[in-house]
Every structure is written in structure tokens, then in C-alpha cells.
């Protein structure tokens, strides 16, 4: 009897030891991988899917502890990601390609805007009846604005000399006020904030999208460094799968999606929803519907590469400049 009791005590002690050991290992096994997503700009409606997915716990379910950080323009986001200060960023694809011409380590991993988001805004009462009247005027934008590098292409499409305008350095948040005050004559801006311009200028608003001018490079993309891509392929796959899922969810039912961003960033929910509805036209294309959300068309990227090489008289080399390898090809736009 004593022998049996002793054996039971040994077994119980062993079980306790296993439980204690498992408890000690659990935090390490369950620890989420920290990831920072650096936006192209301050949080707006187009960023709603990532706030929504985080709120719903979808990133956490994939073992990702996601921090979302506001940006100050593509040109400011790219070097921080390339240097490994943050893991993933959002930037305009043209800026990413321009960076590659300077040996900056950046690779597009998911096309967020299948169409360029940029357009030119002006006041009709400011002497501009059509884009050709922009010649001789002042364009306001920060030095890192995504439109600046491709201005020669835009000017050619308009039919005016690239050097016929004067660039004025202004903070991004000062664009609308500067246009109102006459400090600048033209403001290049994202279509996602079109409502702000309509409310500010009403019938006096003049606008043309770059698409209308025949200039339609890929717009915003998720990107990362080649180094992070190589060392963390599974984390990238999980991050992109959740992000694709979130974009689809926001297409299907946008209101709860945009309400999360509005709440977390203290913005008007109706404004954020309106912003998102405009962005849907920039995201949607046949590739997103038939291939996968965020998939690149290699032929289009090749055309964008040619544009950058021509603009800056450089050769970007063999790449890769983009990849579809980390996308979930089963997730498509509705």
C-alpha cells in the first residue's frame, strides 16, 4: 500500500512538473510577433480595413501584434521601411520605383490602389479654365509629394512645358487653406479627400484626375524591404491574408468597417465613410476581381518601370520590384 501511495505521489509530482513547465513555455510559444505598419499619410478612410481587422482581432489570431503609425508622405515612409525601422509601409508605387533607382531596398508586396489616386485641384475663379491654364501658375506640395517625381509626365500629358510652373513647398495639411488664400494656384491631392475640396470650394472647384489625362501608374502599395521579406515570409503571408480579407469585408459592408477608424482617430464617421466609398473606385479592377485582391499585373508594373527609367534617365535593373508571392490568391473582390 505504501509502495502504491509512493508511486502515485511520484506520478502526481511529475504531472505538476509538466504543467509548470508547460506554463513557463506558454508565453514564449504564444507571444505575438510585433509589426508596425507605417501609413503613407494620416489615417483616412482608405486605411479603414486595417483598423477594422485589428479591432476584430484578425491580426492577433494570426500571431501578429500590429501597430499602425501615421505617415508624412510616401517619400518619408519609404526610407524608414527600407532601413528596417518598421516592417511594412504604404507608399505610392512610383515613389517606390524611384527609390529603387537610388538603391533603396523596397519591394511592392500588394497593390492597394489599382488606379492612381492623384488629381489636380484649382479654383475656377483663379484664372484656370482647363489644365492647360496651369502653365505659369504655382503648384503647392511638400518636397516628398508623390506627384512631384512624375510631374514631367503629367505636364506632357497636359501639353505644357514641365518647367512652366513654380513649385511651392507647403505642408500637406496646408494645401486646402493655401489654395483658398491664393498662396498657391493648384493643389495635387488624393481623390480620397475630394469631399474636403468640394465642401471648401463648391461650384468654384476645378479638378482633373491623372487618369483622365492618361497618366495611370499603380497607386498606393503595401511594401517592405527585401531583407524583411526574405527573413519573415510566413509573417508577411499572414499579414496580407488578413488585410485582403479586411478589404473584402469593407467592400461588402463598409459602415462598421469605417466606424472603427472614425472612433479610434476621432474623425466624423460620415466623412470617413464617404472617403472610403471614393477609394473603392481606386481599388477595384478586373485583376482584383478575377485574380486576387492586391495582385499586380506584371505588364503594368513594367510600364511603370519604363516611365521611371525615362523620367530619371536611370536603369532599375532586374528587380524584383514587386511580388504576388505572399498574397492569398483565393481572396477576391466581390
Automatic annotation (TrEMBL):
Record-level GO BP terms: thiamine biosynthetic process
InterPro entries given in the database record: NMT1/THI5 (IPR027939), SsuA/THI5 (IPR015168), TAT_signal (IPR006311)
Pfam family, one: NMT1
Keyword presence, Electron transport: no
Signal peptide range in chain numbering: 1-31
Every SsuA/THI5-like domain range: 45-255
Keyword entries, A-Z: Signal
Name this protein carries in UniProt: NitT/TauT family transport system substrate-binding protein
